[in-house]
Structure formats: C-alpha cells, structure tokens
Design brief:
There is one protein chain. This protein is α/β, with parallel strands linked by helices and about 200 residues long. It is built from six helices and five strands. A five-stranded mixed sheet has the order 3-2-1-4-5. A hairpin with an 8-residue loop joins strand 1 and strand 2.
Length: about 200
C-alpha cells in the first residue's frame, strides 16, 4: 500500500473533500470534508473503495475522534435530477465545507472538476483518495454515511436489495427495477443499461 501524504499545501488547515454515490441509480450523493491534525496517521487508511466494510467503519470512528474538523453532506436524488450529477456532487462538497466548524485555509478535491468555494484556494487531485490522507478520510466518511442511509431505506423497499448494492446498477438491482418499477429514491435522469424504465413510477 502506497504511503499517503499528509497535505498538498503549506497550510495546516487543509481540508480534503470527496463524494460517494456518484454512479448509483438511486439514493443521494454524499460528500465529506475533513481537516486532519498534522501528526495524524492510521496504517489502514486508503481510498474507501479499496477497504473492506469492517475496516471502513473502524476508520470512520478513528477519523471522527481524531480530526480537527469534519462534516458530511447529502444531496438528494431530486437535486441530482435537477442539477446533473456533477453539479450535485460539487454542491455536496461545498455544503460539507461550508459547515465545517473550522474554516479551511486550503482545499484539496478528489477528481478533476470543482468550482471555487468562497475565496479559499483549492487544488483538484486525480485519484486523490489514493494520495492524500484527508481526501482518503473524506472518502471513508462519505462512503460509510451513504451506506448507512441506503441500508435504512432498504427496509422500506427490500426488493431492490439496497443493503447489498447500495443503489448501484448490479444485475439484481436492474432486474428488480424491471419487475417492480422505480420508486421516489431512484434518479430519473440516468439509468444506464436499463430499458428506459417505462414502468409506472411509485
């Protein structure tokens, strides 16, 4: 496992931000922003997609306990349909940054697209969740809080198996949509590999 860097800039209050759920068919997009202390470290910290679920939840508790500041923000499927998924993802990151209890001096963002947030300088970093601790920490928080939400709404719509697929386009999820139609948690703006979803909406 490559060693993650503590920060990109010279600033102590550097916030990392990342999102989860961008490619899903249902549910919100969730973003987190995290400012870590200068001496923060955890041997298992990495891009959340490369971690097992138990490790992600173990890391979440550690990050929440040790971070100088953190926030998680949800943007609903309705806003995704209205804004498009890129703008909704950026909005979620902006909201997480806005509500940090400590104002960041610099922002590093996973990916290559972002919009200026207030007057704070920023840098996008492709695969940033594999390179910088604060972005990796944000990826863990965004992923686990979104997973918790998807498990909760699974109880209302168990036939979609959201507790397993978390709203992504698995064969099981697509077959359930063909059989039962879509519900209000589904995003109406894009449904890759599904036959235009001509079934009635709930």
């Amino acid at each position: 496992m490559a060693k993650l860097k503590r920060r990109f800039s010279k600033y102590i209050l550097e916030a990392g931000t990342d999102e989860a759920g961008r490619g899903a068919l249902s549910g919100p997009v969730v973003a987190a922003a995290v400012i870590l202390p200068p001496r923060f470290r955890h041997p298992l910290l990495n891009d959340s997609k490369k971690l097992t679920e138990p490790v992600r939840y173990q890391l979440r508790e550690f990050i929440i306990k040790k971070a100088l500041a953190w926030r998680v923000s949800f943007v609903s499927q309705y806003e995704i349909d209205r804004l498009n998924i890129l703008n909704a993802s950026i909005l979620a990151m902006h909201k997480a940054l806005k509500y940090l209890p400590v104002r960041p001096e610099f922002i590093i963002v996973d990916g290559n697209r972002f919009k200026p947030f207030e007057d704070i300088p920023f840098q996008t970093v492709i695969n940033g969740d594999e390179k910088f601790m604060s972005i990796a920490a944000a990826s863990v928080l965004a992923k686990t809080f979104r997973d918790d939400f998807m498990k909760t709404i699974h109880n209302r719509f168990p036939h979609y198996a959201w507790h397993q697929n978390k709203g992504y386009a698995t064969p099981q999820h697509k077959e359930a949509i063909r059989k039962y139609g879509v519900c209000h948690y589904h995003r109406k703006s894009f449904h890759p590999n599904i036959e235009q979803l001509k079934l009635d909406l709930w």
